[in-house]
Every structure is written in structure tokens, then in C-alpha cells.
User: Fold TetR/AcrR family transcriptional regulator from Nonomuraea diastatica.
Amino acid sequence: MEQAKRRRGSTLEEAIVEAAWNELREAGYAKATMNGIARRAGTSKHVLYRRWKSQPELFLAALKRFAATVEVPDTGDVRDDLVALLGRIRQVFDLLPRDLISGLITDTQDDPALFEEMRAYVMGAGVHDITRVILRRAADRGQIEPGPPCARIVRLPIDLLRNEYLMSRGPLPAGTVTEIIDDVVMPLLRPAARR
Amino acid sequence: MEQAKRRRGSTLEEAIVEAAWNELREAGYAKATMNGIARRAGTSKHVLYRRWKSQPELFLAALKRFAATVEVPDTGDVRDDLVALLGRIRQVFDLLPRDLISGLITDTQDDPALFEEMRAYVMGAGVHDITRVILRRAADRGQIEPGPPCARIVRLPIDLLRNEYLMSRGPLPAGTVTEIIDDVVMPLLRPAARR
DNA sequence: ACGATAAGGAACCGTTGGGTCCTTATACGC
DNA sequence: GCGTATAAGGACCCAACGGTTCCTTATCGT
Assistant:
């Protein structure tokens, strides 16, 4: 019944992070407990606190392990690329415990280093790179103005989607993505188009 | 020493909400406690729970009481109006306990009605109205394209500022406002301008 | 003047994050 | 193969929290 062997090091660590993720998924951020995670991982709190110095630190580790991969869409059209990208990110959001991000923002507030780590992950430089690739390709095709776009424009689509996500409860309606792209992002990209 | 009289009804209620606000300001959302608020208001938890059925509900009441007034700027120029508006909202943000909004988002997640109340207040229809007035005036002056702008555009400035606020710690740098307006909002408003 | 209402105040409950202590299994240097 | 440093497992403790209950006593409406 009991596991014959005692796990150690990275094997154990991996098991704990996975247990934390499961706890977060099933209980949500607000109700997830260290005891629950320890029980789930078949270990004790002692072992948890040896590795992570606080609860939000472990939760952030669990989030980072989740590491969803987002590919660079390449449909041949800027608009469709952006819609595909945001659509994919929307899917990723839907897999997250609903209060994880806001909970981490709240609970890392008094730990600058941890907050920065969270912010870096959530604001995801990776996604910005993807957006930049999409825009560069579009510029090469002559669909948008040439030259590298300013940082704000690159961040814009993801910032708007994240804002929508944080300020809502259930899953985001699909229309949100196309609305953001068609009403805000695309009009900004087209050099001298109407509306 | 002790107050001779026993407060009741709205007098007491007002005192409690104010105590809650002070507690939030001094301790922050994460560390504010019901006991602390009761002590501060010179009453007991019993009285608190008679009026608000949970902690986040009281916190939201305290936030709503805060009710900062935002006037409609009228400088004669769209850009300056928008900069003034966002600048004012930035000031309001700076008066808020740093983790209040994210904390409320997290802790109202399992109470749909309360979440909606929070969302309605934070997304503030009032600010959208102000933006609409600014844009209409600008259209009248011929500074931007005529006709009512779509809802997304109206929300855009505030959404971007709120996103910046939620995803950061200390007070927002002043440059944030002008960046949002000049890099994103204004290029969208000018009918056929460059960049 | 009196009775319903509600304030003040205390004690209580279950649970949490965090920590201590002791036993015991494991990995590694010899 | 053996012994020792290391760390896992697990029980227990702690202060503090949100929320609840109960009792006493002041206030208000009638």
C-alpha cells in the first residue's frame, strides 16, 4: 500500500509541483492549502518548506511548470495570425485556475523579487517575441507599415486580452479576441486605412 | 474614556466602513482583518457580520465609499484631455491600497453577484462616459473622425492603464500615461495620420 | 414606561500558514 | 560493504484568521 521507496531530490520536487498544480486546479487558488498539497504528494509540509519559502512561491513554481507552448501562427495574413495567437492564449487562460493570476498578484506584493518573477512569467516575453515575428512578416509582405513597431504596440494585443481575463469570471467569450483585433489592433497597424 | 453613547444604524455603519478603509490603507488587503476593523471602529465582529456577510463584501463597501470624483477635463485638445483624464485616474490608483483590486478579484470569484458589483465599480461606467464626452467634443472640433466611436475604443485608455496598474507594484511612473495616449490611443483616433 | 431591537463584548470553533522535533530511509564517501 | 551526513516522513504545536454563538445592556419606537 505504502510506497516502498522514499523519493528524493528532483523526483520528489517534481511530484510536489505536480501535486500543487492539481490542488490549484481542483480547489482554486483561494482554497488550495499546503497541507492538501503535501497529502496529495504523499509527503509532509516540512519537505515543502525546505524547497519553497512560502505558499505563493510554490504556487508560482507550479504555474511556471505548466509552461504551455504557443507556436507562431503563419496564415499569410496579419489579422488571421493575430487572431490565431490571441485565440491560443485564450485557450491557455482557460486552463488556468480562475483566481491564480490575481491571487499571485495579491500575495506576492510584499516580496519584490517574487513579484518580479511572477510578472516576468505572466507578461511573457515569449509572447511578445511571437507578436514581433508576426508583425515583421506582415511588414515584409507590405501589409503594414515597415520598420519595427514600438513596444506598446507589440504588447497591445496581449495586454488587452489579459485585462479582459483578469476582469472577468468564467471563460472568455470567443468574440473577445476578434473584437480586440478588429476594433483596436488592426486599425492601428494599417498605415493609412479608414477606421 | 469610553464613549458614553452607543452608536446605531447608519452612524455606526459609516464608522465601520471608515474603519475598514483605514485598516485597508494601513495594513493592506492581505493583512487587514475583521478583528482589526472592529477594534478600530470600537465595536465587535458581531456588528460587522450583521451588515456584511463576508470580509470581501465589507472591503468592497469600503472601496465604494471611497468614491473619488473625476472631472471632465476640457483643455481644447483631445490628446491633452485624455492625458489629463488618465493622469487623474493614475492619482486615484495611487490612493488605493496596493493589493485591494487584485485581492477583491480573487476573493469575489465564488460569489457571482459580489464579483459583478466589484467589476461594475472598478470598470467604472462613469469614466467611460467622461471619455465619450472628450471624444465627442473632439469630433465636434474636427480633431478626430466624426460619429460615435465603438465601445472598445472608448474603453481602451482606461483598460490599458488599469492593466498597467494591476501588473505592477509601486506607484505608476508618470510616463505611462503619455505613452499609452501617444503610442496607442491617439494614432487610433486620428483619421489618416502617420504613425 | 415598556418591549423589541440591536450594540458591546467575550468566548468559541475549525482551519490555515508556518515551524519544531524526532524517527527512519537513502545516497555517497570510504 | 559500512557508516555517516543528509533529508524524507510524520506527528505535533502555535498564533492568527474568518466566522459564529451567547449573554448582557443600552437605545429607540410606541
